[in-house]
Amino acid sequence: MSLFADPRPLFQKALAERYAMGAFNISNMEMIQAIVEGAESLGSPVFLQVSFGAKKYAGLDYLVALAEVAQKNTSVPVVLHLDHGANFDVCKQCIDAGFSSVMIDGSALSYPENVALTQEVVAYAHKYNVAVEAELGQLKGVEDDVSSEESYFTDPHQALDFVQKTGCDSLAISIGTSHGAYKFSGESSLDFTRLKEIKDLIDYWNKVPFPLVLHGSSSVPKEWVSLAEKYGAQLGNARGVSEDLLSKASKLGIAKINIDTDLRLAFTGTLRQFLRENPPIFDPRKYLGESKKNMKIMVEHKIKLFGSQNKG
Ligand SMILES: [Zn+2]
Q1: pTM greater than the 0.70 cutoff
Q2: How many domains does the chain have?
Q3: 81 CA to centre of ligand 1 in angstroms
Q4: How far is the CA of 284 from the centre of ligand 1 (A)?
Q5: So which residues are the catalytic ones?
Q6: Taking residues 92-121, what's their average pLDDT?
Q7: What's the gap in Å between 259 CA and the centre of ligand 1?
Q8: Which phi and psi angles does 254 have, rounded to 5°?
Q9: What pLDDT does residue 146 have?
């Protein structure tokens, strides 16, 4: 039995009340504190998610232990989620370690292989009452070990067939977002017609609203890019998804929105500024404390944008 929140009832409430929950990537104590303190201050449920890269960096046992302390010290629901599980073994490892949610990402496989792999993970996860997110369609960009040159959008009829065959609890779809800080060369756009088709088809069959997930949804805010660049970062033409589009998606059946890049930007921009402006300071608590403060502000900003404040 996981100590963390089961995302399924949280999804149902989010879909009924038309908001989305932020899923934020973690790789150290400061990030976990910033995210959970931000969620706590606004009374919002929150996902802490662990990528393969984070697991490699910090070690799974460290991240689980830190997240457990965070959940024990807050009144809001915290979901501990595996981001982009690449195979059955890593999903099993996280389920056994106490996660309440895992993602199996078979989106790079052939359709039948993706179905088979997802079925295998769902069978194991559901035995332990752990929820499973799967993915259909492909996002462009780079995220830790996940990278793709090409993107293809999720086919609505295939999405229905996939959910029917696999029994997954939520589905990450591709409708125009992409991983990383360099998402668009021009204006960002999302395929809302496709989102509606996917949602209508699955909901009609499922009888209750089915949660859809957006990956690669950082907005790469100009003011944060400028701050980081003012203090030496070189980010070129980094560009993300417009916040208006995300706010709209959060009311149309997207129940979970993944954010990693924007937290990194807030953390790194602040760190660069602080170190440049305070040359005598070499106490890590001072500069990490500043970064944490601004990362928390970024988390609160996302929670308000997605509409999940006072829903915890
Ligand atoms: Zn992703």
Answers
A1: yes
A2: 1
A3: 12
A4: 30
A5: 83
A6: 97
A7: 9
A8: -85, 120
A9: 66
